[in-house]
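I hope you will forgive my troubling you with a question about protein structure. The matter concerns a single protein, recorded as an amino acid sequence and a row of backbone structure tokens. Please examine both parts with care and let me know of anything in them that strikes you as inconsistent. Thank you for your consideration; the sequence and its tokens are set out here:
***
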Amino acid sequence: MKISEIEFSSTIEDLLNIYKWRWCHFRTARTKDSWRTALSGDKGFPDYIAVRPPRLLIAELKSEDGKLTDDQQLWLDALRECVRMITLEPVISSVITLEPVAMSPLGHPINRIAK
């Protein structure tokens, strides 16, 4: 069963709240001409950033048919180069089973979001 990105976002937000993560998501707003997200800086910043020490999660949500934009891919590539990131993959709505992420001593994920 396919779910919309809005439904998927709502589920992610519920889970972040249930498991007591501190999180942030920048929502788009309708303007006279188009949709805009009020932020400064480079386009394509991931949808969610969440923290529950010692873990940090950065997620770009996509529906099953969704594709990363070039700007989103640039952000994920740059963030992937940082040390001690937990997971930095697009989160696809068909991949809904969430598992805790364990870190290796070098800061690499041992578990990931699983099918």
The mean pLDDT is 75. The CA atoms of residues 45 and 75 lie 6 Å apart.
